[in-house]
Amino acid sequence: MTDESWVPVPAGSGFGIENLPYGVFARPGELPRVGVAIGEMVLDLAGLAAVGLLDDRRWFASGSLNGFMAAGRPAWQATRARITRLLTDPAHRSEVEPHLIPLPQVELLRPIEVADFVDFYSSIHHAANAGQMFRPHTNPLTPNWRRIPVAYHGRAGTVYVSGTPIFRPWGQRREEHEPEPTYGPSRRLDFEAEIGFVAGVPSVPGYPVPTSAFRDHVFGFLLVNDWSARDIQLWESRPLGPFLGKSFATSISPWVVPVEALEAARVTPPAQAPPVLPYLHCDEPWGLDITLEIELNGHVISRPPFASMYWTPPQQLAHATVGGAPLRTGDLFASGTVSGPEPGQRGCLLELTWNGAEELVLPDGTARTFLEDGDTVTIRAHAPTASGARLTLGEVTGTVRPSPSAPSPAVLGGAP
Ligand code: MN
Questions:
Q1: Cα–chain center distance at 350
Q2: How far is the CA of 347 from the centre of ligand 1 (A)?
Q3: Is the Cβ–Cβ distance between 339 and 121 less than 8 Å?
Q4: Which of 5, 48, 187, 350 is the most buried (most CB within 10 A)?
Q5: What is the band of 124 on the pLDDT scale with cuts at 50, 70, 90?
Q6: Which of 91, 366, 124, 120 is nearest to 224 (CA)?
Q7: Contact 340, 304 (CB under 8 A)
Q8: pLDDT in tens, 291-327
Q9: Measured between alpha carbons, how far is 232 from 291 in angstroms, rounded to an integer?
C-alpha cells in the first residue's frame, strides 16, 4: 500500500496512494460519474470500467456513491486493491492515463444521496463549554452525557456539497433582554467543525449494529460543517430541538475517505467513566488521530483534535441502532462539534467568542463574534498514514450570503 504511484503527487498534497478517497464529478456537458482523487487528478472509475480495467456492477456511471456503498466491504476492498494496483504498477500506466482528469477541469458534486442525517454531541470539551454558557451554576454536563452519545435527527434534504453558498436563515428569536420574540435574519450565525461517517450496507429492522460490525456497514469518513443559527436554536430548543436553528444548511466535503485508509490513524480514545453499558463497549481502539483546521476568511482560527472525542464512531453507530431502527445506505452520522481542551482547539464561534462576549480578532485586524454576510469558513483535516505520510480529508468550504428573499412586511408583522 505504501508503493509510490506513477501519478505525480506533490509534497503535502494529502491525496497520495494511501488515501484514494471517492467522490462524484462532472465535466461540462457530461453526466456525473464516480472518481477517485490521486495527486492533482481525478481517476474516472466509470471510464476504467467501460474499457474493462475495473469490475463494475453499475456502480460508477452514477450521480452518487450509494450503489457502490451498498455493495459491501468485500467489493470496497477489492476495488481499492485494484485501483492501488492500477496506479502503482507502471505496466498499467498507458491504459490508465487516459482516464485521469485534472481536478480544475471538473466540478465536484455532492458525493452521496443522504438518507437520514444524525448529528451527535460527542466532544466532552464542547458539551462542557456549551453547558457552562447556557446552564450556568449547574453541572455543565447533563446526567445522561457520559452514559449515551447524545444526538438529534437533522435534515437530510439540506446537506450540500462544499462550495454551496449558505443563505443566512431568518427565523424567530428572542435574546435574554428582549421581552418578546421577533422575526428576522439570524444575528448569531455560526459554524460547527465536525467529522462524519456514512453508512453503506443497510441493517435489518430490529437488529442493532454492534460496535464490532462498524466496518461491515460504514463506507467512509468526510468533513461536515453543521451551520447553526444560535439565536434561533436557543429560543426554540426548550425543551426539544434543535429544529430550524440547524435545518437550513449542512455542508459536506466532496471526498469520502474509505475506513480502510484511516486504519493507521486509529488511537486509544479518552477513558470513559463511569463504564458504559455493554452494548456501547468496544473491544478495539476507535479514537482517530485526525487534526482539523478551521479558516475564517483565509485565517486559521482553530485546530481541533478529533482524537479528544469522548464517544467513538462505532459507539455512535451502536447507539443509533440499539432501538432496532435499521440503517439505510446513505445515512450520515456527524460527530458533533469537535473541540479540544485548549482555547485554540474550539470548533465553533460560540465557544471561540464565548457566545459573543469575547471578540475574535483576526490577523488582518477585523473582528468577529458571529458570522457576517460575505464571510467564508473553510474546514480541512489531515491524518497520519501507515508510511508516516499525511492524508487529507480535503476541505469543506462555504460563504455566507444574505437571504435571497427578504420577507414581505406582511410576513414580518413589524420591524425585524
Ligand atoms: Mn452539530
A1: 19
A2: 10
A3: no
A4: 350
A5: very high
A6: 120
A7: yes
A8: 999 999 999 999 999 999 999 999 999 999 999 999 9
A9: 30
Residue 259 CA to ligand 1 center (angstroms) comes to: 22
Burial class (CB in 10 A: 0-12, 13-18, 19+), 305: buried
Centroid of ligand 1 to alpha carbon of 328 (angstroms): 21
Query: Ligand 1 centroid to 348 CA: how many Å?
Result: 9
In the chain, CATH 3.90.850.10 sits at: 117-401
User: Do 173 and 182 touch, CB atoms closer than 8 A?
Assistant: yes
- For residue 321, how far is its CA from the centre of ligand 1 (angstroms)? 19
Contact 227, 166 (CB under 8 A): yes
Determine the number of helices (DSSP H) and then strands (DSSP E) in the chain: 11, 26
**136-172: pLDDT as tens digits:** 899 999 999 999 999 999 999 999 999 999 999 999 9
User: For position 30, what pLDDT does the model report?
Assistant: 95
Residues with CB under 5 A from ligand 1 (ion): 119, 192, 226
Range list for CATH 2.30.30.230 in the chain: 22-109
Prior bond of 202 cis (ω within 30°): no
Q: Which residues are catalytic?
A: 126
Q: Does the CA dihedral 185-190-192-193 come out positive or negative?
A: positive
Q: What b/e sequence results for 73-97 when a residue is b if at least 16 CB atoms lie within 10 Å of its CB, and e otherwise? A: bebbeebbeebbebbbeeeeeeebe
Cβ contacts of residue 289 below 8 Å, gap of 6+?
265, 266, 267, 305, 306, 307, 383, 384
CATH for 22-109 is 2.30.30.230
Return the residue matching grid coordinates 443497510.
Answer: 202
CA of 346 to the centre of ligand 1 (A): 13
Set of cell numbers at residue 67: 450503489
CATH topology of domain 117-401: Fumarylacetoacetate hydrolase; domain 2 (3.90.850)
